Amino acid sequence: AFLEPEGGFDTEGYAEAVALGIRALTALAGPEQSRLRLGFADLAGLLCGLGLAYDTEAGRATAAAVAALTRGAAEVESGRQAQRLGAREPVALLWPAPPAATPVPGLAEAARAALDAAAGQPGLRHQALIALAPADAVEALLGAETAGIAPLAAAIRPVLTAAGTLAEVPT
Length: 171
Hints:
The chain is mainly alpha-helical. The protein is 43% helix and 6% strand. The chain has helices at 11-29, 43-49, 57-85, 107-119, 137-142; strands at 156-160, 166-170. Strands 1-2 form a two-stranded antiparallel sheet. The protein is flat. The relative contact order is 0.17.
C-alpha cells in the first residue's frame, strides 16, 4: 500500500498509518491498556515491488528500515499519548537499529528520524508496540496471510468463497 509508482516507499504516509494504528488500538482496548501489538504484513510483496531479492543485503536492509520506522513511529505516538494521559513506560529503543542506507531513497533516513523522535519522548504510554508473529485468524480473514515477514509460497492461494466453493485468488 505504501509502494510508490516510481519505486520509492511513502515513509510519511506509512508513519502516519502506524500512528493511526496505535490510536485505534488504544481506543479499542481502552486508555488503561498498557500492552499493544502492532505489526506489518506483506514485506515480501513490498520487496518484490521494489525489485529486491528477499535474501540479499539490500532486501535485509530495507526490511530492517521498515521495522525501525514502524517501531519509531509507534513509540512517537505512544509518547504523544503519554504527554496527555501520563507516561507508564520508559522509552526503550533497543530494537531494531536502522541500517545506514537502503536502496530505497529516504527510507533509512526516515527510520533514523523516527527513532530519534521517539528517543526524545519523556516516556511511553504502552509497553509493547511492535510484534512479528505467524499468520493468525485475522490475517486469514483479511486475505493477508503473509506471517509478517515470510515470503509467500505461491502467487495464488485457495480460498473458500461465501457460496462454499473453492476459488484461487492472488496472494
